[in-house]
Amino acid sequence: MGTVPKQKIISDNENITNRANLRAEPKATDGNLRQSTGELPLNISGSPALDSAAASSDNVSYYYGEKMSVIRLISMLFIVWAHCLLGWENVRFVQPGFQFLQALILETGKLGTISFFVISGYFLSDRLYKYNVPGYLKHRFFTLILPWIIFLFLYVFIELFEVYPIKLIFSWNIGYTIHLSMVLARSFIFYSAYWFLPMSLLSIVVLIICRNYVKKLWFIALLIVMTLFYCVNLYYKWVPANHTKSVMGYTFFIWLGVAVKNNEIKIRDYLARISWNMIIPLLFVLLCIACYEAMGLMKRDSGDPFSTIRFSNIIVSILLFFALLKTDRLNWLNFLNPRTYVFGIYLTHCIVFSQLRIIINHLVPNQIDINHIGISLLLQLAFFLIVFATTYFIVYLIKHSPVKAIVGI
Predict the structure, then answer these.
(1) DSSP H helical segments within 170-301, as ranges?
(2) CA nearest neighbour of 262 among 311, 320, 211
(3) Distance (Å, rounded) from C-alpha 301 to C-alpha 295?
(4) Percentage of residues of the chain with pLDDT beyond 90
(5) How confident is the model at residue 393 (pLDDT cuts 50, 70, 90)?
(6) pLDDT range class, residue 29, cuts 50, 70, 90
(7) What are the Cα distances from residue 188, in Å, to 9, 354, 379?
(8) CA dihedral 365, 367, 368, 371 (to 10 degrees)
(9) Of 117, 175, 264, 396, which has the fewest Cβ atoms less than 10 A away?
(10) Ramachandran quadrant class, 259 (left: phi over 0; alpha: psi -120 to 50; beta: rest)
């Protein structure tokens, strides 16, 4: 073997050192440069750190996707509770204790609506830049819009037979029948659960149109101001105070869902640091404040004292959403397959309630007895469970039938 020149050894050592430095130090033209210019680093295949971050992000997205199904089911339970109350909203109690109990019963039914808007925004995030407005509506037509139309008109058809004589419905006066149908449809859209989907779609359309501004502080502030306007309006009634007519008040919650989706890892880490010893007492206090605000609005003869868009209800509903996002103790509810059945429950529960209400009115004419308030509460709870169980069973049957598409998703 020949002798290797000293200069050659030095040169090879320098090359080895340079290659080691290149491996140890990231290039200025790679992720660091993007970070210095305010851009997000790309996931480059073969980079363990970036691949690990991407895998972590995917895990969180899957985990939160499953969580959203649970939150969706719990929110629907609150909504069904709100729509199957046996006249608690029409009773006027004198004793403060009964007044608070009434407020608590009614407020419980308002805890799920905002979560539904946030969940809608969460799943909108991946589609926000994918579709224009016509494209999105087309994408959602057969899974959301058409089922909504079918069940709305089914509800109208059923109620026509109960409210008006058959001979009038099938008389030659078609114009009269159409008029009655439109009156009922309008009533159901603004005064039953069917208001949610149009309001949600309208809010989504606003975000799609303004998607280039969703990260701008002025746009976020504008959404907050519009929501706060409806909160203040409950006290002054500049415009109709009914929460189902608060047209621009819900866009902020759709935006909030988009923000949750875009910051999943940060939110997960932040929620992990917050103690339940702080969350649970805070939820209790905020729930009490929401009840007392509603009681105050009742005394002011507000148009909608238990409006979803109400200062205290917004705060307690958002806190409850994040509390449900934090806990793992309710994951067992996934056995009910909420992703498959919740939208069908939304579509059908008002119809089920209206029919079961006829039965209970015959069986128990006096459903709220101040002298036996405990029995009245048990009756209300039993009726709620019957409505929910019956609705779930009907949706289950539809989902396993040839017409399963009519319950959408």
Answers:
(1) 174-191, 196-209, 217-236, 251-262, 264-273, 276-299
(2) 211
(3) 10
(4) 64
(5) very high
(6) very low
(7) 87, 12, 26
(8) 80
(9) 175
(10) alpha
